[in-house]
Amino acid sequence: LSPHFKELQHPLLLPGGVLQGSRAGDEDLVPLKSQQEALIDIYFRRIHPFLPLLGEDETRSQSASGTIPLRLLQSFCLTAFKDKSAAPSLNLGADPTVLPPERFSGLIYAAILNNLPRKEERRVLTNPILALLSLHGWGPHGCEDSTFMLSQAVHHSHTLGFHLARPGKAPSKSSRALFWCLWSLDRWSAAVNGRLLMIHDCDICQEAADVLPLFQPSFRIWLRIAEQLGWVIRSCRPVMAGNQTEQDPELCSFEEIVEASKGWGTSDEILGPLELFHHAIIILSTHSKGLQGRSRF
């Protein structure tokens, strides 16, 4: 584990950097092959449409051939286990016994943290793993751990220059998708966990609207919602004495966002959660109106 993570005094951390609940050999634990496929299916059905952190075709090909990186496979399992349909797939190793969700996730989470790729050239792999870990947020310290994982992912993306336009070198679609996933998660982390934004629009060379045509409608909807969340966050910021307050953001309805994203063909299984996220932003925007006139002094 990184020294920064040790400084957090994580409640599962034991002397020597070993996580509580892990045993020798646990770092290689994964569900049986058929259960791996079931959990990967859940991930690509429920999460990937609006958070395309990795390419589906390549990931499924690696899974079928047994070449998928172990920590990435474990991260998919960790992300998918909360879905109700995942319950029969929560086994580890050769033992087909179904584990309680807390035990299953605790062992996998510990294994990933203790064995994250460390080499600099592995940043491209580590980045999506950290982003997936940031979605976990389990237990009383889950919010703190989640924001820490996301901050590391954002740090690596800055190092790799995902936010920059480099002359003569167009970024790949996958790197763009990963960056904009982090950009959106940063806004949700700020709103849910009370954190400062780590990715500021003034520091990147594009706006969300510039990249929308590259992606599927479900991701376009997600990015438009995250963009509006950014506007709401801006209206909630403290105001220096003598400065004007931000005007209330003009938010689109969910139907307008779906229409602009050409997203009416998106399944209800995806549109439902996206609409819930949009409702949350509307509620936050009404709260921000009550903060107008606030000051740091």
Automatic annotation (TrEMBL):
SMART domains: Fungal_trans. It comes from the Eukaryota. Residues 146-215 form the Xylanolytic transcriptional activator regulatory domain. One of its GO terms (biological process) is DNA-templated transcription. InterPro entries: Amide_Lactam_Regulators (IPR052073), XnlR_reg_dom (IPR007219). GO terms for molecular function: DNA binding; zinc ion binding. Keywords: DNA-binding, Nucleus, Transcription, Transcription regulation, Zinc. This is Xylanolytic transcriptional activator regulatory domain-containing protein. It comes from Aspergillus homomorphus (strain CBS 101889).
